[in-house]
Amino acid sequence: MPPPRTRPSSAENNPLPLPVPEREIQIGNAANEAAARHRFNDYRARRADHTLRRQDADLALFASFLSSLGIQVGDLAHEPAAWRGITWGLVEAFVKWQLSLGYAIPSINVRLSTVKTYARLALQSGTLPPEEYALIRSVKGFSHREQQRLDQRRPRQRVGTKKPAPVALTPQQATALKTQPNTPQGRRDALLMCLLLDHGLRVGEVAALRVENLDLDAGILRFFRPKVGKTQTHRLSPDTLEILHRCVALNDLPTNPHAPLLRASLKDGSLGKAGMTTRAITQRVRFLGEQLGITGLSAHDCRHYWATQAARRGVDPFALQQAGGWASLAMPRRYIADNEIANAGLLDEE
Q1: Range of 229's domain?
Q2: Taking a C-beta distance cutoff of 8 angstroms, is the pair 241, 220 a contact?
Q3: pTM of this structure
Q4: Residue 10 placed within a domain
Q5: Residue 68 neighbours by CB distance under 10 Å
């Protein structure tokens, strides 16, 4: 007769975990400490230069606010130790301080996001307690509806020279901007405005264009978008292609294929060396706008116009996102002006 079966004990079913060897614990702790020491540098190494410049400016303003309270901090953008003593109450006060000084609410929201990002890095570096970081995360920015209410109640709604809204262009004005005198400088200006109005390029992208980016036989432009880190190909618009052929025929473009596409202009209206800085392009666009009675025109306004016109022609939002070099669908929506008639294009019209 076989012996009766016995139920295994709970200890046999769930054996106790083996203790972790002391050496492995030490290695793990050392790895954590090494990662913590380099957390700020690792994060910043992954970000684009324009993002870092904006974040540095945001944190510099935060440090200035803290200094006004008698709190001196180190380099908030690079030193984890600079975040010791930062509390959610200080972050909340920073938001209200900006509001009282008249900073634009979208800018306040962006700076709050920057502070939260670096507070997270400070948490991971071990200099900010978890409970304090959780409270900092709870500090809220402002919604679009809240912005409207607040702006109605405060006398000053913006600090600096940045425009509260883009300059809106009509198709007639856009055509006039692309129609320039048939001189070397005029043809250069016409090419500049075609690139901005017909292709929606950012000012930095225009400044970075090289002659070799063009393929006039195929009618395309290949260029790099630093903001999203990708190379794109645009089919040239008829106006852009026409002015480029004129520039080539009249020897307006640099002969070196590696040279910048746009040439600087001299005081007498002739063209000088190859290359226009973003500052020079910005000033030229403003000047060309003023010649037509358009005040404060910028390359950014031209990008708004391009996106708005594309949307009104019924361009697929995903195609617009790709053509504009945006990382998400939320960005082109910010560039598109509202229709005067809200349901324009939605009704069947005979």
Answers
A1: 171-335
A2: no
A3: 0.63
A4: no
A5: 9
